[in-house]
Design a protein that fits this description.
The complex is a heterodimer of chains A (about 425) and B (about 200). Chain A is mainly α. Chain A contains 16 helices and five strands. In chain A, the strands form two sheets. A three-stranded mixed beta sheet of chain A has the order 3-4-5, covered by helices on one side. A two-stranded antiparallel ribbon of chain A has the order 1-2. In chain B, helix 2 packs parallel to helix 6, helix 4 packs across helix 7 and helix 6 packs across helix 7. Classes of the chains: A mainly alpha (about 425), B mainly alpha (about 200). Chains A and B meet through helix 2, helix 4 and helix 7 of A and strand 1, helix 4 and helix 7 of B.
Chain lengths: ~425, ~200
């Protein structure tokens, strides 16, 4: 007997699992799709961690189908089993969890290298929640495979899991999408954090699903009792998860609190302090001079800009700025555009006309010009069609321009006619 | 025929078709996110495309219920019966969908069901039950991943992503179903039930 035979036998067992053999293409696909989807991310660990799990949308149905296929194969051998149902379930789940973890970790490592977050670390509870949810779907697939022929079980596991994970974000009520464990499309800008029960709701749902599956797997001899108990467990878990997720709204996020990094800058028109989240400290230091110049020019043009500006948090007049990407002058352009964020007003969504909306591009171009962008470039950036009208505005005195701007902005914030 | 209908679980298979038609009518026109390599990350596809796996699975559930021993020793073949069952399955899918959602949704649903059923039969002919599921699911994955170019309509081979009235997609789906039904008479006996 060869001394390495036990190792070979153990390897054979793991390799005999379809989940093992097909996990490699799923992992590669998961990494590629998640990376392609993360064309823009914040250098913020929570954002990067959630984006690294985008592939759950197809890893979950994939591993559920593979688990169903494996379970159906074990079912055929049940008359003379070497391993019990928990042992084979554990092996299948372990493979799906390891492969999913590999996908998420590799994706996260590549994203972290690309975006270089400066503070904090990966959001481990979110990763664990997504892994638990994925394992619960694989457990669901395994249970289907334990009772149904493999063709039936694998197809059903794939279809049901895909509809549950991928389709629920397209429908209401909102709690449906917030209990599936899929965070890739719903979390988080750098001014957001997960809300209180954001992880608890999908964890509850996943545990209820795993519990129901275990009852069905372990109590086969009293299947009718097991079915009722499993269903009861699932309904109770769903109700609890729905209750926990009831207040989330579309996404399970809330405004981020905590210390921002601030840099004071003395401009020719008074002091200005610029604040941003710690993740943007380097960018803030690099662009503080440019922001100071823009504020100084805007004040010189007659605009009232408060002494403290916070990235992503508009003042009462709407002034803020963004350092969100590395494009040139992003801080200046977003500062100039910030009073227009929030337009058109809500009345437009109710179907009312917005006559002052015709002025939007001109006002935008005027604001860009006010922070130092040359007129022709401002016109181009704001997509102004009526060049003559814009030139007419710029030809007026500073006081008249300012009055025109104030009246236009006030008009655009309502659905009434501009004065 | 009665023996065949019982053995191929007609009473289970046909209600699945009606259910598919009902759910298809509800999902008509709705999109759901799917992975896409060509569009970069996540894209969307008609929700009906995945639902269309259901009649195919139901058909195989019935078809593989036929006992291998009886088929091997039968005086008369049952392939024609199974072909009729497949067409009845599609017809029964169409009725509720047409009643509730109209012609366009029905066309899309029946096209998808027919094409995936054809692919499944071809897959079963090539690789038994692995192919019966693997080929249609693999095709769906491939269509989602690379079937939609960055600009323009879906590729011709990704007919399942095309809009309902697209003629090449209808032709492709019909051709796949026809090929599958032709091959149905030659499917390997190892697909069938072996217990007494």
């Amino acid at each position: 007997v060869s001394p390495d035979r036990p190792i070979r036998e153990a390897m054979w067992f793991w390799w005999s699992l379809t989940t093992t053999r097909l996990s490699v293409p799923l992992v590669i696909l998961g990494v590629v799709v998640s990376l392609q989807n993360a064309t823009f991310a914040e250098p913020y660990w929570l954002d990067l961690t959630s984006k690294s799990t985008t592939s759950l949308v197809f890893l979950a149905p994939g591993f559920a189908a593979l688990a169903a296929w494996d379970a159906a194969r074990w079912r055929v051998l049940r008359t003379n089993p070497v391993r019990g149902p928990l042992s084979t379930l554990g092996a299948t789940l372990l493979m799906s969890v390891v492969a999913s973890l590999g996908t998420y970790v590799v994706t996260l490592a590549i994203l972290a290298t690309r975006y270089r977050p400066e503070v904090g670390g990966p959001h481990v509870p979110l990763l664990a929640t997504v892994l638990l949810s994925g394992a619960a779907y694989a457990c669901f697939g395994y249970t289907l495979g334990s009772y149904l022929p493999r063709l039936y079980a694998a197809g059903l596991a794939f279809g049901v899991t895909w509809f549950w994970v991928a389709y629920t974000p397209a429908v209401t009520p909102f709690w449906l999408r917030n209990v599936t464990g899929s965070f890739g499309g719903s979390c988080c800008d750098d001014d957001q954090v997960l809300t209180g029960h954001a992880l608890l709701a999908p964890v509850t749902m996943a545990l209820a699903l795993v519990g129901a599956c275990l009852v069905l797997l372990l109590a086969r001899r009293v299947i009718s009792v097991a079915a009722v108990a499993g269903l009861g467990l699932l309904v109770a878990g769903t109700a609890t998860a729905a209750h926990l997720a009831g207040d989330f709204g579309a996404d399970p996020v809330t405004a981020r609190t905590g210390e921002r990094v601030c840099i004071s800058h003395r401009t020719g028109t008074g002091p200005a302090t610029f604040c941003a989240w710690p993740e943007h400290e380097t960018a803030l230091r690099a662009r503080a001079d440019s922001l100071g110049r823009a504020v100084s020019l805007a004040r010189a043009a007659g605009l009232t800009i408060p002494p403290r500006l916070v990235e992503g948090r508009p003042t009462s007049d709407g002034w803020t700025f963004s350092l969100g990407d590395a494009s040139p002058r992003v801080e200046t352009l977003t500062l100039a555009s910030s009073p227009l964020v929030g337009l058109p007003p809500a009345c437009v969504n109710r179907g009312q006309p917005w006559p002052a909306g015709d002025l939007f591009e001109e006002v935008h171009a005027w604001l860009l010009h006010a922070v130092g962008v040359p007129p022709s470039e401002a016109r181009e950036l704001a997509s102004v069609d009526d060049t003559r009208a814009f030139k007419t505005v710029l030809g007026r005195s500073r006081a008249e321009q300012l009055e025109w701007y104030r009246q236009s902005l006030a008009g655009m914030r309502t659905c009434g006619k501009p004065s | 025929v009665i023996w065949w209908l019982k053995a191929s679980r007609g009473r289970e298979v046909l209600p699945v078709a009606v259910l598919t038609g009902l759910v298809g009518a509800v999902l008509s026109g709705r999109q759901a996110p799917v992975p896409s390599l060509t569009l970069g990350g996540m894209s969307s596809a008609p929700a009906i495309a995945v639902l269309a796996l259901l009649p195919m699975i139901a058909f195989f559930r019935g078809f593989t219920g036929l006992p291998a021993v009886s088929l091997a020793t039968a005086v008369r073949g049952t392939a024609t019966h199974s072909r009729i069952l497949a067409l009845a399955l599609l017809a029964l899918t169409a009725v509720p969908a047409y009643t509730l959602a109209g012609g366009s949704a029905t066309l899309e649903l029946v096209r998808d069901c027919a094409g995936l059923l054809g692919l499944s039969l071809i897959g079963a002919w090539l690789w038994a039950d692995r192919g019966a599921l693997g080929l249609p699911v693999g095709y769906l994955f491939a269509a989602f991943l690379v079937g939609r170019p960055r600009h323009g309509d879906p590729s011709a081979w990704a007919w399942i992503l095309s809009s309902p009235g697209t003629v090449p997609a209808l032709v492709a789906s019909t051709a796949l179903l026809t090929a599958g039904l032709v091959l149905l008479g030659t499917l390997p006996l190892r697909l069938m039930r072996t217990d007494p």
